[in-house]
Amino acid sequence: MRLTRAFLPTLKETPAEAQIVSHRLMLRAGLIRQTSAGIYTWLPAGLRVLNRVADIVREEQDRAGAQEVLMPTIQPAELWQRSGRYEDYGKEMLRIRDRHDREMLYGPTNEEMITDVFRGYATSYRDLPRNLYHIQWKFRDEVRPRFGVMRGREFLMKDAYSFDLTAEGARHSYRQMLYAYLRTFQRMGLRALPMRADTGPIGGNLSHEFIILAETGESTVFYDAALEEIDWAAKAFDFDSQADMEACFNLATSAYAATEEMQDEAEWAKVPAERQRTGRGIEVGHIFYFGTKYSQPMGLSVAGPNGEAVVPEMGSYGIGVSRLVAALIEANHDEAGIKWPDAVAPWKLAILNLKPGDAACDALCEKLHAAFPNQAIYDDRPERAGVKFNDADLMGFPWQAIIGPRGAAAGRVELKRRMTGERLECSFDEALAKLGA
Amino acid sequence: MRLTRAFLPTLKETPAEAQIVSHRLMLRAGLIRQTSAGIYTWLPAGLRVLNRVADIVREEQDRAGAQEVLMPTIQPAELWQRSGRYEDYGKEMLRIRDRHDREMLYGPTNEEMITDVFRGYATSYRDLPRNLYHIQWKFRDEVRPRFGVMRGREFLMKDAYSFDLTAEGARHSYRQMLYAYLRTFQRMGLRALPMRADTGPIGGNLSHEFIILAETGESTVFYDAALEEIDWAAKAFDFDSQADMEACFNLATSAYAATEEMQDEAEWAKVPAERQRTGRGIEVGHIFYFGTKYSQPMGLSVAGPNGEAVVPEMGSYGIGVSRLVAALIEANHDEAGIKWPDAVAPWKLAILNLKPGDAACDALCEKLHAAFPNQAIYDDRPERAGVKFNDADLMGFPWQAIIGPRGAAAGRVELKRRMTGERLECSFDEALAKLGA
C-alpha cells in the first residue's frame, strides 16, 4: 500500500480529550476516530489490528473446541425479562422501542439469547457438551465513556458459552477456556495473569479475570513471580484431557495473584518476599461458571442417559477484543509512538523512500514493496525524511526499511526494528531473509 | 469437524413461517435461527457461508483500490439532521435515545458518517481520490420483515463511498465499482446483470442495480442475451485505466436490461427476438453517483491544485452480504436441499461413515478427515445411512465421500458431486486428488 494512495492519516497534535497514552496514540496514529461519545470508527490501520487480534482469539477458541456463531446486536426484551435481568441491568442497557412499540435492547452480553438458541436444538445428553462463541459488537451505555476504546460504549467482545451435563463437566469446560485464554494473550506478546474475581452481574460462584501488566494499567495487582515464568504456549496441554486441564488450572491459579480489591494480606505475606511482585494491570478477559442460573429460568433441559430431565450447567467467557487493541498499546509504546508486536501489527514493514524521484531509491523501494504484497506500507510521499521517520515510529510497524540515495546506489537497505531500536545495514537479499519474505 | 461434537442442527419439518425456498432451507439446514421478527442468529454453517461471501466481496473491493474501515452501528442524529435525511427516512430508521436523552439511531446506511469522518482528515486535492468501504451490520425497521435474511431488519451490508476531485473522476470511481461488482458476483457462481435504476432515498442521477437471475426471484427482468455471454473474470480490465473502465462500463450497460418497473417497450422491441430473455431476478447490489449531495451539506471541502476550495464528488456502492447468502440458495438448490457453489460452501466435503464401529470404515474416514483439516464435516453419528444422505444433501456440501464397509475393506471411496449428482468410485489416493487435498 502506497501512502500517497492510502487512507492512513496521522495527527501531529495530541488531541486534548485523550487522557491515557493508548487513546492518544490511537488518535494520533490514525487507528480510530470518535463519532459520538464512546463510539468510534476504526480507520484502516486500526481495523487491521482489530482483525488480527480477533483472529488470534478465534483460532484459540476453535483449538479449544468452541464453535463460532453470530448472534444479532438487537435483542428482544422478553429474553431478559425471563432471566430477571431486564430491570437489574439499569441504565447501562441501551433500551429501544421498534416501530411496533416492541421493547428491544442492544445486547450488552448474550447469556439469555444463547441459552434460548441452544434450547431450540438440544434435546438429549448426546447434544452436550457444547461451547458456542461469537465475536460481536456490544453496547453498554456508560455514564462517562472515556479512555478511548478502553471504556467505550460500542465495543467488540468475544463471548463464549458452555453447556454441560454435569458440574464436573462444566468445570472442565471452564478450565479449557482458562487455558485457551492464557495461550491467546501469550500469542499477542502479553503477559496475562488469571486472578480470582467477583462474579458481578453475570452471577455464579467461580470466576477469574485476566489482567495484563502495563505500567499505565487502571488498577494495582499483587502476584507471585512464579506466574511470570510459565510459558503457556510451550505447555501443550491436551484440551480433551480432564487431567491436563486440571493440571493447567492448578498451575495457573495456585500461585498468589490478586487485584487491589481482592488483596488478602495474610495470603500475600506467605509469598516469599523475593517473589512478591506489584504492578499495574488492565482487565482483558473474564470467565464465569454459574451452573443453572440461566438454563433454569430459560427452560433449557435435555433428556439424560436414563431419560431423566437434566438442566445443563453453564459458564460464560469474555474477551474484550477492541479493548485489547488499546491494552496492547499500553503495554507496547515509547515516547515516539506504538511498538506493535509482530503478531498483531497492521503491516509488518514500512518502506521509507528518503528521496522519491531518485531512480535508484524508487527502484529499490518498488522491488521491496513488490516482495511484501499486503504486508508493507510504502512511504512514497514527497515529504522530508524526518516526517517519514516520525510517522513510521508513531504507527509502530515492527520493521522499517530505510532507503536513501547513497545506500540505494549500492543496493543497500537499512533495517530498523521498532521494538528494540536495533539497526542493521544489509543487502537487498539479506533484508528479504531478515524480514521473512 | 465431527458431527457428534458439532453444532450443526438440521430440522426435519419445514417451518411454517417460511414462504420462500431459501428461507425454508436456511432454517432446515441449520444456517440461521430467528431471534425476533426479521432478526437472526447465524449458526456455525451459516456463519461460515456468510464469511466466505464477505471475503470475496472484500477481496474484490481491495483489488479495485477501495480501503476497508469499520464504522459503528450507532450514529448520532445530528449527522442526519445536517444532511436533511433525519426526517425523510421515516419509520424505517430505528431511533434511539441514550441515557443522557441524546438522539441516536442504528445506521441504515453511512453516507453522512463517512463524509464526516473523511472531512476530519482530507484537506488537499492530494488526499483524493479515495474509496472507503466497510462491511457492517445495518438496521432497517421494515413494517413486515419476511423471506428470512432476504428482507430482514438487522442485515450485513458492504457499503463503499468514493471521493473525487472532479465529476469525471467520480464517474471513473463508479465504473471501477461496477466492474468490481461484476467480478464479485461471477466469483460466487452468480450471473448478475447491471440495470439502470432509480436512485430512491440515496439520491443522485446515475445508478445501477445488480440483479441475479433465479427462478424464485422477486421481480421480472428483461434483458439481451448478449449480457449472458460475458465472462467478467476473464476480462482483466485494468482498474487504474480510464479507458479500460469506460470500455467495461459500455460493455456492461450498452445491451438492454431492465426490471419490470423500468421496462421501456420501445427499446425492448429493438432487441432482436432471438436475443430477448425474460427471467426472475433478485437485487443484490446497488451503486449510486450523487455528486455533492452529501459533501456540500456536511461541509467537506479540500484545497484544489490552485488553492481554490473544491467540494468532492461522491458515490456510494452497496452489496447485500447477508441477502446474498439467501440469493445463492435461491439460485442453487433442488428438492433435496442446498447445492453450494465451491466458492462459498461452508465446508467443501462431507464424509459419510455408513457403519461407525466398523474398523475399516472408521479408519478410512479418519484418514480422509485428517487430510482436510477445517474443510470437512465427518458424519460419525450412529444414524442410518438414509439420515446421513438426507442431511448431506440438505446442507449442500459440494462433495460427499460415502464410505461403507464393503468399499472400506477394499480401500475404496464413493464420491458424489452435489451440484451435478455425478458419482464416482475410486481409491483413497484418487479421491484425494479429485478433492484437491
TrEMBL record, chains A, B:
BP terms from Gene Ontology: prolyl-tRNA aminoacylation
Name the keywords, alphabetized: Aminoacyl-tRNA synthetase, ATP-binding, Cytoplasm, Ligase, Nucleotide-binding, Protein biosynthesis
One GO location term (cellular component)? cytosol
- Chief localization class? cytoplasm
The UniProt catalytic activity note for this protein reads:
tRNA(Pro) + L-proline + ATP = L-prolyl-tRNA(Pro) + AMP + diphosphate
Q: What class of enzyme is it?
A: ligase
Which compartments does it reside in? Cytoplasm
Domain annotation Aminoacyl-transfer RNA synthetases class-II family profile: ranges: 38-341
Question: Domain of life of the organism in this record?
Answer: Bacteria
EC number(s) of the enzyme? 6.1.1.15
A Pfam family hit:
tRNA-synt_2b
Q: Name one GO molecular function term.
A: proline-tRNA ligase activity
Q: Which HAMAP family match?
A: Pro_tRNA_synth_type2
Family assignment from sequence similarity: Belongs to the class-II aminoacyl-tRNA synthetase family. ProS type 2 subfamily.
Q: What does this protein do?
A: Catalyzes the attachment of proline to tRNA(Pro) in a two-step reaction: proline is first activated by ATP to form Pro-AMP and then transferred to the acceptor end of tRNA(Pro).
Summary of subunit composition and partner proteins: Homodimer.
Spell out the PANTHER family in the cross-references.
MITOCHONDRIAL RIBOSOME PROTEIN L39/PROLYL-TRNA LIGASE FAMILY MEMBER (PTHR42753), PROLINE--TRNA LIGASE (PTHR42753:SF2)
Query: Which protein, by its recorded name, is this?
Result: Proline--tRNA ligase
Q: Which organism is it from?
A: Roseococcus suduntuyensis
Gene that produces this protein: proS
